[in-house]
Amino acid sequence: MQKRNADNKTRVEKCKEITLVFGIETIIKGRDCYQGSFVPGPKKILTYINLFYLIYPVLYNTLILFYMLRWNMKRTLFSFLIIISIFTPLFAAAPVVNPVYYRLNIEGIIDAATSDYVMKGIELAEKDGAAGVIITMQTPGGLEKSMRKISDRILNASVPVITYVSPKGARAASAGVFILLSSHVAAMAEGTNIGAAHPVDYDGKTASDKITNDAAAYIKNLARLHNRNEKWAEEAVRKSVSISEVEALNGKVIDVTAADINDLMAKLDGKKVKVGDKDVVLNTKNFASKDINPTAKHQFLHMLADPNIVYILFLIGIYGLIYELANGFSSLAPGIAGAIAVVLAFTGFDSLPINTAGIILVALSAVLFFVELITPTNGLLWIGGIICMGVGSFLMFPGREHGNAWHANYFLMAVMILLTVAFFALVVGLVIKAHKKKSIMGQQSLIGLKGTAISDVNADAGVVNIGGEEWQAWSDDPVKAREIVEVLEVNGMKLKVKYIPRKKEE
Fold this sequence. Notes:
This protein is of the alpha/beta class.
């Protein structure tokens, strides 16, 4: 402790000397004096302040020297005052600026949006010359690819990264364990836990030995780089062990526990961490934090990792496509909206363990409902559709054994199944019945109507205008263009007509 105090004193003196005598050197080195210690600081914030302290004495002293030469320093008192005024600006103290830490937040499943958000946040902190990055985290895990991007970015960061599992009751499971162990400082709040890092495949099943061995080697390296418990780290992967923050601290899995951010930063002041190839002493006294929030794009894409949302989007997409099919593609809006919803649902499926059989069964249930409406089978296809939707919804999310974050809510599934049955029974059913009624009424209403021959009509072909619409037609007796005709019968989309003589008044 005495040695460290002596080193700090030496560094403080050096800092004062450089600031007072060589003011420009603090700008060149990109380092400033904070609270009497020589530590890195935000370069952009102090650049103009330091330039002011550099330029002001030069201009001031030049003016004073000009008057000294002019008056030849006739008065001793005036000369003494001049000398004092020359050196006073040079000894002006540099302003005290608190160290700034950029604060990021990881919540929920770790997906591609999360990794992009964290990587850009660390990059921004490095660019702005922040003192470090604080990541608050509570996560059930996520994609291995996204986790590795975050962990590798932390390892190669040029500023200290402090990861803090919080608030109370939060956890760092699966991918969260890797991120925490890769950080320069690993911290946990009271009442939190860490562990259960065994990898799973996209079907929610335990991954193969090949993938498990690779994950175990990776997490051991992360622990070794920061002098943490390699044995426990490997067991978290191979045996899915999980421990509390107290056990993690006693087992040297993490570095510190804290009640909140302020308590954490107070405990970290003066702690030495290794950032890259350099040893950095954390300066957290009177720190300031700047929240870096995810962009609208990050928030939207991260929202799609919610199994409840992607489940609803998938069903809405099916509704739109089936409605468009039943409506004969007469209104494109439902079909376009349905297609977009399905694409978004599959985007979310990419972040979750999904069973393809479940997706097929849910889609098949919609087809069965639709076919039942077209060709009634006394409810047989309805029953089959309900069974397919229930079983498919249950099978769609195989990761339920790993926690609620990996599957849709059971109550939501039941509600959506009932809504689906009601949708096909009412909305689609009414549309199909309306088309059938329109078709029958249209055919019957055409018979007996009169119109005009657009072209010559014979036994093979011709075109007539009936009720403002053009129809293909034929006639047993030839009819010339512009003659009056009457509809005798309807055969699909073709009409049988006969010639009607014009009345004299016509």
